[in-house]
Every structure is written in structure tokens, then in C-alpha cells.
Amino acid sequence: MLFPGKKTASLIAALLGVLCLLVQGVGAERRTIVLGGAEGLAWEEGGGSIPASVQTGPTEVEVSNTPGNVIEFDAGDRPGWLSPQQVDETVNIALGLLDRGGRLNAPTILSQDVRNTLVFMVDDDPTTAFERKTVRGGSQVNSLGVIMDFDLGARFGVERIQFFPRNAHPDFLVPEFPFQNDYLRAFEILLNDGSEETQEANRPVLTTYKLDPENEDQIVELDIPPQYVRHIRLKSQTTVGFEIAEFRVFGTGFVPRADYVSNVFDFGEELALWGNIRWEEEFVGTERFSRLSISSRSGWDDTPLVFTRKKRGQDVPWREGAVVTTSAGNQLSLDDISDVQEALAIYDALELADRNSIALTQAEYDALSSSKQGVVSDDLLAWSRWSPPYSLGSETITAENIGDDALGVPILSPGPRRYFQLKAEFSSDELESARLLGALSFTASNPPIAERIISEVVPRQVELGVPVSFTYAVLPTNMRSGVDLGFDVFEIATPVRCEEVGLIEVIHADGRVESADFSGVDLGSLPVQDDTGQFIVEAVEERLLRVRFPRIDESDLQTERAALLKIGFTCRVLRFGTTFSGTARNGTTIDLGQRVIGGNAADLGVMDDDITPIGAADPNDLAVKVPLGGGELMINVEALPRPFSPNGDGINDATFIRYDLTRLVGGAPLSVRIYDLSGTLLRTLFAGEQSGGSFAAEWDGRDAAGQVAPPGIYLYHVDLDTDTKREAKVGVVEVAY
Question: What does the alpha-carbon distance between residue 734 and residue 554 come to, in Å, rounded to a whole number?
């Protein structure tokens, strides 16, 4: 089912105006979309076709790619590069605070009319001023304790603050306003850096920087050690009237936090799969003090936000007068239901398309009075959460290879989906350090293999490190005729190399059954196929099993014409919660492959403990557990073959010290060494970090100098050193000629 957007019923598909490097395949189109750099889509234009809406407060939404407006385009005079804003030391950053979402406030002044004049301090107009002094008619105002709060809208490195009355500053001379002596004669300046740890109850904790009880300067100029500042409070400590024509703040360095959010990309009703993402990145200053985080999310409709309005003291997400159709076919107005919770339950039970058709849009939300506006939140039903930040590792991405879709890392956001969005977060702990982002590209392909594929594996509780026969079931819940590609290749991510492949069975939508049994087949020389040539074991690698079978191109669970693929294989599990993720591929196209969703794919017998309906999603259905508790981290340690004869005849010329590492999530130091019986170290076969898995270190019978060891008995030592414990295994291997 396709879901219309919450802002419009339908939008132009396929990335209008987007720069794409296109590669055509049989029935599939693969795109590499490039943003930024010298030749990609301009960062300023947002990339996608649907403007980005960014939540900036409980009821505030900003249509912008740069919330806070502290991103610098063409950074360092490099076309197409982004960076956090670098402050010009001669520019008054207080002038833009309202545009950045900052605020001005005077909490001790009751008159809204007077508070409205606070803006005169940051308008760069020498003829206007915020005044607290004798007014017309001779009445006095009490200036003591007047507070003026400035929220700069973002954190900046600040090194100077300046304020003065009209006609006091040589750059702001206005003789018709001769108020240069109405300067603030006693004041206190307080600062807050805007970080979360300096807030209490969502209010900044301000610290006094300067207290001057006897100021004699018309132009107050405060030079402060460069530091991050967001909130500034100026407090009058005098009863003498005063005015401030301009309050100026000057900074230095890079802002410590800046965000860029792309427009929403629309890949059309066909839906799309995601490939790899990669980007150019550089740093200035000290590398360890700055960070760049790239994330993504994907969705079914055109806005990732939910807008609500107030109704009987509660927030509801439907527009006023919204009508729904009950299961009995009756028309029902949600606003007429007296119990708001009951109305919310009815709304939540609607199909996504029906819900979107009556959902409050951003335009409708903006038209409401502030008293009727409810909270805004992320739509976690139609959209995924932002992915964890991607890491390129040691890969170097340049302008020359940015379009190479084999580079980068896989996009983690769910697919296939229609809509896609990216976010870049810049952060720094030092004023002079920052990251720069050049070109960014990602790969997408449509149409997908199927609209949705559910998979599960059984058994889901096994013994640690023991070979187990698994059955993996794959259920395409819906394949759209004439749209989806279908699949004839499937890959399973295994924790270690499979020891055997068993029965592979395809049950087609029309009830036909085709199968091949590879039990007992030698997997040492691949590929291997059955007599028909339709079933093939293509790859059995350390962490991958790939098989081919007759194409599945029709499946519809709702009409009870669902196809099913079952794959039998044997392997070991070495860690609690191992996930057997799967990817379906079309062997005749250039599709990116479609990752499956864990769920109830089939009734797989007594070991299948699902209680949810067939087709229901559940990520636990792809996870396999082993007993918890202590136990060994290193198991199945042995030398094979033994004895061995390193005489060059091609038969048993080397032995392999094999071992399985269990329960390890990250890497840990490990070494494999060979000793003679006197305890003398003969050779180090491996020394480095390894994580969970099955490994083998080869010994060709030679010592560290390359000399062949004489016949005899030798000891191998495998030593593992983790944060919590050390383990060592010692065994015997014989050299014979």
C-alpha cells in the first residue's frame, strides 16, 4: 500500500532537479545523488524537492536547511563546502540573534510595550534606543534592578561586549539625539555558555563576569577571554535613568555546534532501496577537538513531523471537523466524540493512508492561534528515527571518487521507502577547530525487489559454539505486479562459515514447489548446483552464505497467494543475540539488494514459538540466543592437521591453529605463538586485535628466521586479554617427515 503525504496527496516523483549519475539495468534504475562539492547539487538549495521542516521548540517549526543559521556555505572560499560559521571579529553577532531563533527579554519589566523596545538595542539604528529614564511629564522610572536578557540563538566564541547610548559612539553620531551622558552608571554582566550541563529546569544558570558599581564610560567595552557564550544578562545596578542605543557582541573562532538538514528526497511511488553513503571531510585546527556526524532517515510520507491542536485540554493530530468511516460503514466526526482518548484510539487504529488524509498539515497548524496550537513531534510511525552516525573508517573520499557507489558504508535507514532525508551535525570543543564537509553522495535504486520481505530463523535458542542445523524462511508479503523486480538470489549473514547447506525450497504463489538438497555436498569448491542448474550454492564465506534458486516474482499475503523460500544450513553461534540478517537480490539486474525485516514468515514447526500472525514484524525472529553467564571466551581451540609434514610435497605442508572467540562484541588483544618443549619462543603467528568469530593461524613449520623446524613435538599458545579477564589455551602439534 502506498501512503499519500500529509502536506499534499501526491508529489512529483523521482527527484526533480536532482543531480543523478544514472546506471540502467533490466527493470531497475540506480542513482548516485551528489550534494555539494564543485559539481553536485548546491547545499544552499537543499538537495531534495520537499523543503525541510525542522522543529526548533515544542510548538515551533522552521522551514530551513540550517536551523540556527550558523552554517557557512562555500567554507574557506571552497565552492560546495560546508562548515560551522566562523565568526568575523569585526561583525556584531548580536544583530542576527532574532533571525537565529534567539530572544530578547526583560523579566523585571511588566509593560509589554516597553519590552518591545528591547529590539532597539540590536537594530544597528543609531536613532533608536531602549530607555529607562525620566519620561514626558517628569515622572521617574526606577532603573535599579532592570534586567536585559540576550539569547544569541546559538553558542558563539565571544571575546568582546560593548554597549552605549545614542550619540556616544563615533560610528553612531546623531547630534539630534544628544543623550551620550545617559549611559549606564552601574551594571552587572552575567554569562552562560548555552551547554546542557549549565541549565537547570531548562533555564540557563548565569555567572557574573563583571560587576561595575561606578562606571564612568559612555562606551562600555568589555574584553573577555575568548569563551563560548549563548546567554548574556545585563543588569542595572543604579537608580539613575539610562538608555542603550546598541548592545554589541563580537566573537572569534567557529561556533561549537551547527546543523544542516537536507530537503526531503522523493523517489516516487515505485519506492527505493538505499545503497552506500560517502562524503568528503577535512578538519582545521586540532583534529580530536571537532566532529562531523552524518545521519539519515526514511519515510512513507512527505513530512517527518506530526502537528497537533488543542482539544479539551489534550493534543489531537487531526484537522477540525475530520470525519472517519467506521468498520460498519458509518461516517463519524472525531470532534463529536466526547471522550478524547476514545477518539485518539480510533484515529490511531486507522490505516496510514486514511490517517494522513485527515491529519493536521503544517499550513493548518500555522494558521491556528498560539493558544490552540499543540505540540509538534517526530512522526515515528511513518518515518524511521535518525540513524546512528555513519563512519567511513579508513576510507579516503575525494572529489574524484565521490561517485563510486562501491565506496562508503551501507545506509541503515529502512527501505524500500519513498522518502529520504539527510542530516549533518558539526560540533567542536575548541574555538579554532572545526570539520568541513565537501561533496556527499548516496546511492539509491528503484523499483525494489518487493514492497516488503519478512524473514525468520529457527531454532532461536542454541548451545554456544556447537554446530546447529538452522532453517531460514523468507516471505515476500507483497510483490506489486509490473513494478517490483522479484528475486532469485539470497544472502544470509552468518556468524562463522557454514559447515553445510541443506534443503533449499521454493513454494511459489501458485502452490508449485521446487527444491534441491545439498546435504553432504563438499563446499570446498564453489559454486555447486543441482541437476537442474536452477539451485546453486554460490558462496560460503566466513560470514556469508549466498544461494540462487528459481525466481520468485509473485507474492501477496492478503490474497493468500504468498510465496515462501526456505534455506537449510549448519553453522555455529558464538555470541548471545547473534542476528542472521538477510538480503534478497535480483540476479539479472543492478539492484542494490533488499534487506529483510525480522518477523513471522512461516510455521516452522515445534521450534518456532511465534504467537504473532504470519507477516507480522518482530526483529527478535532473526536473533539467536545462547546461554548467558560466565564461561569461556575462547573455545574449540585445536591444531589441524596434526601431525603435519612441511617437506614441500603439497600434502599437509602446514597446520592451522583454529579457535572460536565467543561473547566478544569489540576487539581484544590476542596472540598465537609456537614454542618448543624447552619453552623457547619459535615463532609468533599472530599478534593483534580480534573480535568474535572463527579464526585460524597458519604455521608452515618454520621458525622466525625462516628455518624449517626439526621433527618433534611443539606447543602452541593462544592468549586472549580482554578488559575483564585473560584466557590462555595451550595445545600440542607434531612435526614429522
Answer: 58
